[in-house]
């Protein structure tokens, strides 16, 4: 009887040990830290935590792991209800343009009515792109559309044969751009990214009105926010792997965030030839620190500002407060 009892206990303990090993293995396989596996894109921007469990403040770019290349926006394919045509310079009514609901979005009714947007910028920009492309002995040229909105610059450039990297903070903007690209059979020409451009990897609170500046999200200050008002930030340096060419025309319309974006772009400008920067200057000059920084950043790299990309006389740097609403920075040195 004692022998049977010992045998039973031995078998029970063996089963217990084996079961513990199996469940322990399953548990650690599901753990995010199992074998210190690399951070996923979804976890990359989570705030670091100190030993007490509190969210740390700003996480410096230099402390971050290598940026995952898998930042490409994936459309759900359901934003093709409001489509019209887009006037493309020299091509007539060449492209299909999808918009957000005109009863809910301020820009959509104008696009539906005029079939165009900012033609005073679109036309000279596309003409400049073609001139740069035709320069002999130069590498291919693409457009970096920072703040693409409904994608008028992106779609027009793609129709004209340029590859594009387009980034926007608002997911719905990228959905309609993706719908337009699909209808024009141009999806392969464009890479879409749903992020904010900045010099730090943090969550950004998207402003309600476009004239307001995007702010770092702080739960204590801003409280709970709907998901569509929060977006992760990346630097321009982070996006280098997504740029398809060694030469880029940079268009920036990111509502007062130009200074932050260029503070995270030193490597970008060192590795990629930026032939021109189209910048919305009206908001920049209202932030004196950013205005001074941008002037120094671009002039130190051989750029001068012009009203139009074909102008021969540049705008005087010492009079930048009176510059026009939009300026073209051309590399002259």
3D structure, described in words:
The structure is a single chain. With 333 residues, the chain is α/β, with parallel strands linked by helices. 32% of the residues lie in helices and 20% in strands. Strands 5-4-3-10-11-13-12 form a 7-stranded mixed beta sheet. A 4-stranded mixed beta sheet has the order 6-9-7-8. It is globular.
How would the blueprint of this fold be written?
Blueprint: H1 2-30, H2 41-44, E1 82-88, E2 92-99, H3 108-114, H4 119-133, E3 141-146, H5 152-159, E4 164-168, H6 171-183, E5 190-194, E6 196-197, E7 203-205, E8 215-216, H7 219-222, E9 230-234, E10 247-252, H8 258-263, H9 266-271, E11 273-280, H10 281-284, H11 288-299, E12 303-306, E13 326-331
Parallel strand pairs: 3-4, 3-10, 4-5, 6-9, 10-11
Antiparallel strand pairs: 1-2, 7-8, 7-9, 11-13, 12-13
Instruction: Quote the distance from N terminus to C terminus.
Output: 97 Å
Q: Structural class from helices and strands?
A: alpha/beta
The count of helical stretches stands at 11
The rounded Rg comes to 25 Å
- Round the mean pLDDT to the nearest integer and report it: 81
Protein name: Methyltransferase FkbM domain-containing protein
InterPro entries: FkbM_mtfrase (IPR006342), SAM-dependent_MTase (IPR052514), SAM-dependent_MTases_sf (IPR029063)
Organism: Batillaria attramentaria
Domain Methyltransferase FkbM: 145-304
